[in-house]
Write a structure and sequence with these properties.
7% strand, 5-stranded parallel sheet, 675 residues, Rossmann fold, 3 domains
């Protein structure tokens, strides 16, 4: 590279530095003149930091340029030493020599520009220092303003406190004013009573004065009778005092008689109630009070047919996600299908360890579906149906109804409708959740209702045959003309229950298991620290007529033979260990598989796997290969039938339980299952 090119590069770099500094200074001046003061001070620190960085970069560039110029100056000195040797060459190149003064002048001009750039940098530094001073002043003003605001806030707080204290004082004064008004009213009443008493005394005094006047006339007529008249006057004065004392006693007796009259009137009322039996409406006042209430803005969903069912299940999944709860899709489908088979399996049991979401699944499902939800907390002392529905109090002559009885009365489709009934409530669906249902023996308090639920199919459309399936409400001794009160639980009411399996609870009997679908919750795969938030349920409700369109009674033709063959093989296998199932279980399994959502891939295999888990495997509890001769071959055959369904999670769980000394089924954990 020639010397001229080197000098040109250095001068170009210096010129670029000067131009950049000038542009920054111009931009800084433009911002100060055009931007609002608040924005300028807000971004001033950023601009200052950027200018500092650019100033350091420019200083480094200038330092490098100075070093470069020093090197060039040394090279220029060496070149002057070589000038003597190059005179011959300069004589030959006279034109180039003549251009040297012009180049020197150009260098001088560049040096002048560098000097001006340095001056501009110094001016920029001075402006920066001035801007810092101004910023410090503004910060001091801001601090004083904040202190003023804080003082104003404290004064406002004190004023609010004083206001609350004064309001309390005003309220106490108002209370005292009311008490004084009450006392003034009592005093006015006492004054009126005193005036009446004074009037009666004045009347007595007037009569006595008349008698005294007559005595005086008699005394004037005869001197002999004067002494007698004086005695009569003294006697009249004595009578006057005695009358005053007698009036006071009579008034006291009058008050006592008034109190005795009130007490006697109350006794008469109680006696009349005791001898007059209350009406049926009076006895059932608690029972007739509505419990389920719909918001006036709530609207009915249009969810009929398979498309409507599919949309509602998608809405359930979304509602679970919005509420920060996670349930496996197979668990939702199993719970939904079990509710659809309520005509033959009227109870859905959610079993497992505590804290796995057993109670939240029905709640969130009811919210997303638009069903009424009634949570009934089962108590350990429950031992009769009265704990569910209430009892008749023969002392008060009133039926003490529970919330469940009130809700079931509202949902009774075959009773007469009153003016207080909401047709939307009775036309919807009710999900009853028996929470911790095995704290007491289920057979003690639920067996009667369970039997009535099985008899619902005998009630005709007009309720002509409702009595075999209805529950009689005890209302005491009826008067002539009153009909007994019956309660019919229709298909618009669904029942679910939760149960923990530990040493404090009762196990379900075979009678309950045969009439229920048992869904088991395994331990959670991931333990979460935060509690899911409460999600606002949607404002809508599903109609019973739409729910009925989701139900079906039959399987597709190509699946009927497979189902029958599988169930027959199962029953033959279970008969070897004396644990076969009857018609009820067969019909319940058939209805479950028929009602399983058919848009689900491999729906038949999924439904059959659910029924194996809910109906068949629980029958094997307590089976041991060591003590039961045919236990091994029975477990192997059932295991092969389960394997044919290609449900890897169920197959693995079943095989794991089979390896234990005693068969004890704990359910399937599908959390880690690949979907």
């Amino acid at each position: 590279m020639s010397d001229l090119a080197v000098w040109g590069t250095g001068l170009g770099a210096a010129a670029a530095v000067v131009v950049a500094a000038a542009v920054m200074y111009a931009w800084h001046a433009y911002l100060r003149t055009r931007l609002p003061l608040a924005v300028y001070w807000k971004e001033l620190d950023t601009c200052i930091s950027e200018l500092k960085g650019r100033r350091e970069a420019l200083a480094q560039d200038l330092k490098r340029l100075q070093e470069d110029l020093q090197k060039r100056w040394q090279e220029w000195t060496s070149l002057e030493a070589e000038i003597g040797e190059a005179k011959a060459w300069l004589q030959k190149n006279q034109e180039k020599v003549e251009q040297i003064p012009a180049m020197r002048a150009e260098i001088a001009a560049i040096e002048e520009k560098l000097r001006q750039g340095r001056a501009a940098m110094e001016q920029l530094q001075s402006d920066t220092l001035q801007a810092k001073d101004q910023r410090l002043e503004e910060e001091e003003k801001t601090t004083r303003a904040r202190l003023g605001i804080e003082t104003a806030r404290q004064e406002t707080t004190e004023l609010l406190t004083l206001k609350k204290r004064l309001e309390g004082y005003v309220e106490s004064l108002q209370t005292q004013q009311q008490e004084l008004q009450t006392r003034v009213g009592k005093l006015e009443l006492d004054c009126r009573n005193a005036e009446a008493l004074l009037e009666r005394l004045r009347s007595e005094a007037a009569r006595e004065e008349k008698r005294l006047a007559a005595a005086r006339e008699a005394a004037q007529q005869t001197q002999a009778q004067q002494h007698k008249a004086e005695l009569a006057r003294d006697e009249a004065a004595g009578r006057k005092d005695s009358l005053l004392r007698e009036i006071a006693l009579k008034e006291r007796d009058l008050g006592r008689l008034h109190r005795e009259h009130e007490a006697f009137a109350k006794q008469v009322q109680q006696f009349e109630r005791s001898i007059r039996p209350p009406t049926k409406e009076e006895r059932l006042a608690d029972y007739m009070a509505p419990l389920l209430i719909l918001n006036k803005k709530s609207q009915a969903l249009s969810a009929s047919g398979q498309d409507g069912e599919k949309l509602r299940l998608k809405a359930c999944t979304k509602h679970f996600e919005d509420s920060k709860y996670h349930f496996h899709p197979r668990m939702l489908l199993a719970f939904h299908t079990s509710l659809k088979t309520a005509d033959i399996s009227p109870l859905v049991v959610l079993a497992g360890i505590s804290g796995t979401g057993k109670s939240q699944l029905p709640r969130l499902y009811a919210e997303a579906m638009g069903m009424h939800l009634l949570n009934v907390a089962v108590q350990p002392r429950w031992d009769s149906p009265q704990d569910l529905f209430g009892f008749y109090n023969y002392m008060e002559h009133r039926y003490k109804a529970t919330e469940l009885a009130r809700a079931l009365r509202q949902m009774d489709l075959l009773r007469g409708q009153t003016e207080n009934d909401d047709a939307r409530v009775r036309g919807g669906m009710l999900l009853v959740l028996l929470d911790e249902m095995n704290l007491a023996r289920v057979e003690y308090y639920f067996s009667e209702l369970l039997s009535k639920l099985e008899m619902r199919h005998v009630a005709g459309p007009q309720g002509g045959s409702r009595h075999p399936a209805s529950i009689e409400i005890d209302v005491g001794s009826l008067v002539e003309g009153d009909e007994p009160e019956h309660l019919l639980v229709g298909y618009n009411v669904l029942f679910a229950g939760t149960m923990n399996e530990d040493e404090t609870t009762q196990a379900l009997s075979d009678k309950v298991i045969d009439r229920a679908n048992v869904l088991r919750f395994g331990k959670p795969a991931d333990l979460k620290r935060d509690k899911p938030p409460r999600h606002q349920p949607p404002e809508h409700y599903i109609q019973h007529t739409d729910w009925q369109t989701w139900l079906t009674d039959d399987l597709p033709t190509d699946r009927k033979e497979d189902f029958k063959k599988t169930c027959e093989n199962l029953n033959v296998t279970l008969a070897r260990i004396h644990r076969p199932f009857g018609q009820r279980v067969y019909q319940a399994m058939y209805r479950y598989v028929a009602n399983y959502p058919r848009w689900v891939p491999d729906w038949y295999q999924c439904a059959m796997a659910d029924q194996f888990e809910q109906k068949i495997i629980p029958r094997l509890r307590g089976l041991s290969r060591d003590t039961d001769e045919k236990a091994g071959e029975v477990l192997d055959e059932i295991g092969q039938l389960i394997a044919d369904l290609h449900d890897t999670a169920l197959t693995g769980a079943f095989n794991e339980v089979c390896e234990r000394p005693v068969f004890q089924w704990m359910g399937v954990n599908r959390e880690h299952e690949h979907e």
